[in-house]
């Protein structure tokens, strides 16, 4: 059985948001159209406490884009984004949510970031997504959303490690692109790891 997973389609990642992904809003109609083809639809939601240590504002003298050590591992510092119950953390208003089965919140622990929809960045906390997919006999996972070079990529890589046949829908994602080629490099990395990179037009079941 197959499922569509919509990653972090939240206001702060859209144009005008705190951590805006260029053209992030352009994937909304693509994702809405894709949802018509799936009976099983899930989503992830960045849901940070205000004191999250990935926020540059929570470190004196630090700016977004700087890398620090957090709990012994490298941590990119970000603008304050997707704070719990804020407008920026809400899903895009034009995104169809009618048939979603479940939303998996991530990034709740202020001491560790969480890009993947499956685990935090240290692989110590589990969102429950794997168990939920297994409980519903999902074998094929089609991944969309924001952003291709961070949360989407790490979700795809973890899905592969968890044993799911994983598809990245290239026209249903965009990248932060801190470096200009991050989108292309992310797709290459996902493909090399075993994901099938496809377009929405190729889905015809």
Automatic annotation (TrEMBL):
Gene3D superfamilies: Isochorismatase-like
Residue stretches making up the Isochorismatase-like domain: 3-201
TM segment ranges: none
Entry EC number(s): 3.5.1.19
A Pfam family it matches: Isochorismatase
InterPro entries in the record: Isochorismatase-like_dom, Isochorismatase-like_sf, Isochorismatase_Nicotinamidase
GO biological process, one term: pyridine nucleotide biosynthetic process
Presence of keyword Hydrolase: yes
Domain of life according to the entry: Bacteria
Alphabetically ordered keywords of this record: Hydrolase, Metal-binding, Pyridine nucleotide biosynthesis
Enzyme class: hydrolase
Family, as annotated: Belongs to the isochorismatase family.
PANTHER family given in the database record: LD05707P (PTHR11080:SF2), PYRAZINAMIDASE/NICOTINAMIDASE (PTHR11080)
Protein name: Nicotinamidase
Organism in which the protein naturally occurs: Echinicola vietnamensis (strain DSM 17526 / LMG 23754 / KMM 6221)
Lineage, broadest ranks: Bacteria, Pseudomonadati, Bacteroidota, Cytophagia, Cytophagales
């Amino acid at each position: 059985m197959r499922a569509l997973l919509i990653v972090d389609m939240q206001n702060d990642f859209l144009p005008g948001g705190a951590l805006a992904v260029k053209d992030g809003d352009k994937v909304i109609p693509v994702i809405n159209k894709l949802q018509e083809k799936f009976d099983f639809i899930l989503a992830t939601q960045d849901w940070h406490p205000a004191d999250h240590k990935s926020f540059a504002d929570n470190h004196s003298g630090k700016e977004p884009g700087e890398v620090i050590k957090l709990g012994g591992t490298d941590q990119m510092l970000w603008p304050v984004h997707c704070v719990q119950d804020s407008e920026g953390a809400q899903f895009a208003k034009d995104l169809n949510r009618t048939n979603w089965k479940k939303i998996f919140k991530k990034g709740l622990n202020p001491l560790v970031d969480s890009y993947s929809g499956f685990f935090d960045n240290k692989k110590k906390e589990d969102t429950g997504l794997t168990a939920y997919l297994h409980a519903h006999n999902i074998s094929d996972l089609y991944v969309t959303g924001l952003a291709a070079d961070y949360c989407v990529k790490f979700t795809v890589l973890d899905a592969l490690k968890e044993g799911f046949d994983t598809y990245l829908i290239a026209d249903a994602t965009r990248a932060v692109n801190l470096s200009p080629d991050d989108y292309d490099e992310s797709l290459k990395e996902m493909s090399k790891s075993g994901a099938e990179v496809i377009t929405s037009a190729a889905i015809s079941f």
